Amino acid sequence: MKNYIEETYKQVRLQEGKRVIEQFLIQCYLNPGIPTKELARSVLLPIPVATAIKKELIKAGALRQGSGVECTEGGNEYVERVLGYGGLDLELLQLLLHEGEVWKKELADLLEVMEEIFSARPQVDVLIDQSKCTVETSLRRAILCLRDQALLGKNVLCVGDDDLVSVSLGLLLKRLYPTGGGQTARIDVIDIDERFLSYIERVAAENDLPITCHRADLRQPLPKRLHGKYDCFFTDPPYTLQGMTLFLSRGISALQKQKGLSIFLSFAHKSPDFTLAMQREFVRAGLTVREVISHFNEYEAAQMIGNRGQMIVLSTTEMTMPGIPHTFQDALYTGEEKQTLRTYRCKRCNESVQVGAKAKLATIEELKKRGCPRCKNVTFELITRKPS
Fold it and tell me: Model pTM?
């Protein structure tokens, strides 16, 4: 079968990457007869660029122009067989793609099933900053992934999953493919907590969900077999700057080398200064912020963050690369930050600076914000760590 996306990309070298051509085709599949202007708006492209893509897809035989734009028989077959849209409950899909929370009504029975599954999950381990999101939040994340066109036919990774997002994704897929035929998406989980991995594996087996679990200590680089194979990833990391940076770095190493891939980062609402430090880490990793949704996540008994957190949707670029490709030895979790005295060395001038609860600077975020006291550089390496 022709690879319409690859053929079109060779002819129209888009700064947005191949993913936008895929989105273009899917819009034509789901909305046959869609006007070119509406099509351009739906994929966030200028009309001349959308027109150029349309012409190449028509030339390749994937689309045809009538009163609007629609897929040919070959185009429909490509979307169904290669992109994973065959066997879908298209009526349900269209309802779930609508903005707002109509999905709560359409998936009310699924939420009931999930309540039972979530009520039996292991207790959180506060030493590694675990906190349980609500059932609705977990499914809301899955719906976001669906609307982002990052679920159907994709390989999805959960970097840590005490929130059972993998289960929500799997159950949503099962509902969308009522006969099971045509479903090609895969969901992988990496976590250090054997309790959650075992529970997710048991739920996946009982419900025939396409989930595979891998035990991994994220302080170490991911196994090579997990590198470069995923289309997106979810993570809800420890709410420290270094925790966020590490989890993002491990997820990035697992992504395919492609522009426009999605990263779904759940994180606490933070101060403007901390947020600036976060954004610096995004830039260093070659990521762009596509969307920030305040109060998207709700947690059970997480008073420290007001039981609410934001969803930050990031996108990969040509510059995207793991910020921490090596073994990580610094404080990672909130409790570790408070209990250790750490010495960092400036990577530019070798100046040594102490950080910890009993030092002048309590966290690495504060050190990076102020910069090296000698040269104002903002990149450091950990030299020593000891109890404070």
Answer: 0.86
